[in-house]
């Protein structure tokens, strides 16, 4: 697999956070539109058997990663330390990856400090009011039923950027194709309410994935929601937050039955420890196919893979926080 860090610039508010599994779905639709149904089916061959052609991370503020989901005592053994402050300091600069894990907290920033210190794209959530329309009369009808949706608004100053960590099988899907498809998603818009102008972004430079690595890694640190079920892990040394994806079809498939079967995932930032660590670029599994996710489109698949970074997990982190 080839790897790259795609730096993007949001151009509008987003309808929700940029999540890797959702981005993969939209890139699959973009491939279908640009290259055709047969090309997409070729790329998806082997997807549910450990051979993904593309794996997408969440979108992170440029130059930063979310702190791994570990017990708080991993970062501070001093009981006098304010653990609420630790929880708020969740953004880790990639330049700190060469430090021991226990020292990462010293480099972490909370959302307010990150906004002041950098031009990284960090969103503030604001409600947007809507009202239901009776399409037969093009009015609100007899009742007035307003409701609101959250929107993710980025900093107003120019140059805010986000990083996407992407993996692709260069024998089947080239770097140029990957960039082109990502640009297509940015032009149309990512996520909810893209048809009303949300979720637009431009694609900038592609950075080399040359991050510092620990000398003796023991675990994988995930950069997107993934499906670790059925794989071999040391339960006492694996940490994650469960995340249920209530997925829906996008693009033209919304005209059919739009809902997909829910899937249980480990949220981004999970730390998964195998019995024996081996170098890997991603973990998890491809979900779906044969009608398991959607009876409307039986071949539907879901990204249950996640890009990973190596992590050296100290022994004391397995204790109960």
From TrEMBL:
Domain of life of the organism encoding this protein: Bacteria
Gene Ontology process terms (BP): defense response to virus
Alphabetic keyword roster: Antiviral defense, RNA-binding
Tagged with keyword RNA-binding: yes
GO terms of molecular function: RNA binding
Family indicated by similarity: Belongs to the CRISPR-associated Csm4 family.
Name of this protein: CRISPR system Cms protein Csm4
């Amino acid at each position: 697999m080839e790897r790259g860090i795609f730096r993007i610039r949001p151009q509008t508010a987003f309808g929700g956070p940029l999540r890797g599994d959702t981005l993969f779905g939209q890139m699959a639709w973009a491939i279908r539109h640009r290259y055709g149904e047969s090309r997409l089916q070729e790329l998806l061959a082997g997807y549910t058997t450990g051979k993904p052609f593309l794996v997408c991370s969440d979108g992170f503020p440029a130059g930063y990663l979310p702190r791994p989901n570990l017990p708080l005592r991993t970062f501070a053994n001093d009981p006098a330390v304010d653990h609420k402050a630790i929880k708020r300091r969740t953004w880790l600069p990639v330049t700190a990856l060469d430090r021991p894990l226990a020292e990462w907290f010293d480099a972490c920033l909370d959302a307010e400090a990150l906004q002041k210190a950098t031009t990284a794209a960090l969103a503030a959530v604001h409600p947007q009011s809507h009202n239901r329309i009776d399409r037969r009369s093009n009015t609100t009808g007899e009742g007035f039923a307003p409701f609101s949706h959250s929107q993710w608004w980025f900093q107003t100053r120019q140059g805010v950027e986000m990083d996407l960590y992407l993996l692709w099988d260069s024998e089947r899907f080239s770097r140029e194709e990957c960039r082109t498809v990502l640009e297509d998603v940015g032009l149309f818009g990512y996520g909810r309410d893209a048809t009303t102008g949300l979720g637009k972004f431009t694609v900038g430079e592609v950075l080399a994935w040359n991050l510092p690595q620990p000398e003796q890694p023991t675990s994988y640190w995930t950069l997107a929601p993934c499906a670790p079920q059925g794989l071999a892990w040391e339960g006492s040394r694996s940490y994650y937050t469960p995340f249920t994806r209530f997925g829906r079809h996008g693009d033209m498939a919304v005209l059919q039955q739009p809902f997909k079967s829910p899937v249980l995932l480990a949220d981004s930032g999970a730390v998964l420890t195998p019995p024996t660590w081996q170098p890997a670029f991603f973990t998890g599994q491809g979900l779906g196919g044969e009608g398991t996710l959607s009876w409307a489109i039986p071949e539907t698949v879901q990204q249950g893979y996640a890009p990973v970074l190596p992590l050296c997990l100290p022994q004391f982190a397995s204790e109960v926080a």
